[in-house]
Design brief:
single chain; mainly alpha
Length: about 140
Amino acid sequence: MMVILSLLSGVIFGLGLIISGMANPEKVLGFLDLAHPWDPSLAFVMMGAIIVGLFGFALAKRRQYALCGTPMILPDQRQIDWRLVRGAALFGLGWGIAGICPGPGLVLLGAGYAKGFAFVLAMIVGMWLVGRKNN
């Protein structure tokens, strides 16, 4: 059941990225690049995601178990530290340079785009390096 729900969630998320155009790096860069004609559509996608997330987390806080029967484990860290700030800055820089973040990167990889492969490979190497440092 867990595998089916995970697959269904991934498919819905991927379709949302494709339908909204957020799997297209040029569209993302059109939002991030203020020196050229600005494309505000990403802001509307983000607002929609935040609203859905607010309702989702409100419901999740009331539950002890997820729909698939696993314990509901929600983040409890609320402190902003330098590790979070550095990670967010690196994420933002990478997103601004490539126009790709992890979700769209996986969509591009699945669609067979070379830039998706390069992005996901770099993401895996980065996660591996962080894992080595923390061990």
